Amino acid sequence: MKRFFNTRDTIVTEALDGFLRSAAGSHLCRLDGYPDTCVIMQREPDRAQVSVISGGGSGHEPAHAGFVGRGMLTAAVCGALFASPCVDAIVAAILATTGDAGCLLVVKNYTGDRLNFGLAAERARALGKQVEMVIVGDDIALPDSTTPRGVAGTVLAHKLAGYGVTQNWPLSRVAEFVRDGVKRMRTIGLALEDCNPYESGRTSRLSADQAELGLGIHGEPGAQRIAMASARDLVHTAADTLEACLPTTVRNTRFALVLNNLGTVPEVEMALLLEAFSQTPLARRVSHVIGPAPLMTALDMNGFSFTLIELDGAITTALQAPAQPRAWPGIVPLGSPAVVPMPHMPDAFPYPATPNPALRQVLERGAEVLIANEVPLNELDGRIGDGDAGSTFAGAAREITAALDRLPLSDPHHLMTTISNILTQHAGGSSGVLFAIMFSAAGRSPEPWRQALRDGLEHMMECGGAKPGDRTMIDALYPALEVLATGGSLPDVALAARQGAESTTTMESARAGRAAYVPSAQVRDVPDPGAETVARLLEGLAAG
After folding, report:
1. What superfamily does domain 8-195+210-333 belong to in CATH?
2. Quick one: pLDDT at residue 512?
3. What's the CA gap between 496 and 86, in Å, rounded?
4. Is there a catalytic annotation at residue 218?
5. PROSITE patterns annotated for this entry (predicted)?
6. Which residue of the set 158, 218, 413, 459 is catalytic?
C-alpha cells in the first residue's frame, strides 16, 4: 500500500507540528522535548483547576491530541505509532499543566499504557502532585477477558472529565464521575480490513469474503471472523453483539451511541451505517447519538465501532456541554429524519394536446432514426467515452414517442417547452440535460421557431461551456441551426450538420465534455459521438 510519509521515525513529530499549524490545533502548543517528549497542551492551562491528561500510542488520530482544549483534555502525551509514551514524557505533561488542584490521568487499558502512566503518577506524587488515574476498558469483543481493552469509550471519558473541570469540581469528584461513566460504557468494533502500521509488504489477514468482529485498534485479532455481508446485516451483527452484553439491570435505561470511524470508511458509508443502526432492535433503547465521526481510529483500518454509554441526568448534561476541540462532534437526539412536503412542481405537460399530422410524422421519423442508431452510436462513444451516447438519445426518443398524443403539436414554442420538460424528467447523461436547456430557452424565445432554436443553442453553450471547435455536438448543431435560422431547407441543414460532424475527426483533442479527458491519439479520426448523432438525425429527417 502506498502511504504519505517521510520516515517512520518522524511520522509522529511531523504530524503533530502539522496539527498545531492547522485550525484544529492553532490554539494549542507543545512542549519543547522532541523527539522523546511529544506533549500537546493548552497554551494557558488554568492551574487552579484539575488538569486532565490522556495519551497513548499515535495512529489513533484525532485521539488524543485532537481532544485537547477547554471542556476536554488539558494535555495529550503521544507515543510512537502504536507504542506507549515514555514515563518522562508523561511526567513532563503533569508538571507543565498541574497546580494544587491536581491531575487526572485517563488511560486506555493496555499493559504499556497502564505501566507507564502508573509509574509517571507515582513519580509525580513523589514531587508533591495530587494524581488520580482512571483506566478505560470498554471493549466487549472478548467477553471472558478480565482486562478489556480501552477503545472509543476513552473519548467519552475525556468529555466527562473535561466537563467536571469546567464545573470546578475537586479532583476526587472528577475522578469518581469518570469512573462511574466508564462502568457504563461498552464498545464493539467491526472491520473489513485491518490496519497497516507502515510495514512494507504487510497484507490484510482478511480475505475478500470476510469481515472481523471485535478487531482491536492496533489490529489485534477480534472475537471472530464472519462472512462478508450487506451493511445492514453487518450492522445488525454488531448491534446484536453489543446488546447481548448489556446487563439486565439496565433493561429500561436509555443510551447514547457513539458511531466511530476506525479509519478509512467514507463519510457516505458512515452515514449509511447510522441509518442501518436506526433499524436495529437496539436503536429503540438509544436516545442520543455522537457522530458518525473519526474519534479513536486505527490508521487505515476499514471499519467502525459502536459505543454505548448508559445515560442519566449528569452524564447527559456532561456530554451536551460545549467543548473547544473541533474533533468532538457533539451529541444530538437520535430521531427520525426531518421531512417537509415537496413543493408544487410544474406539470410536464402544461399545454393541451393539439394536432399537427405533418409535425407528428417528423417526430416519429426522428425517433426511428435515433432508436435504429442506438447500438452503432454506443460503439462509437465507447471508443472515446463511456459508451452510452446511443442509449441516451434513443431513450429520449422513446419517451417523446410515448408522449405524442399529449403534445401541443400546433404551437412550436409550447411544443419545445414540453419536450424540454420530458427530457428533464427522463433523459439521462449530460446530453439530455443540454438539450433540455436548449428547448426550454427556445420555448421562451419571442423569435419564430427557427430563430428560437438558435437562441436555445446559445443558452446551451452558455450553460455547457462548449463552443464551435471544441469537438462536441455543438460542432454539428451550430452550423445546422445557423442554416435553419436563415431559411435553409432540411437537406441543407443536414449537410451543414454532416460537415460539422466530419470536422471533429481532424480536431486534435476535445476541450469540453467527457472526451476532453481522453488522449489526443485516441480521438484522432473518430467523430464526436454527439455531433455524429445530430448529423444522423438530420440526415434521416431529410431523407424522409
Report:
1. Dihydroxyacetone kinase; domain 1 (3.40.50.10440)
2. 57
3. 79
4. yes
5. DHAK (PS51481), DHAL (PS51480)
6. 218
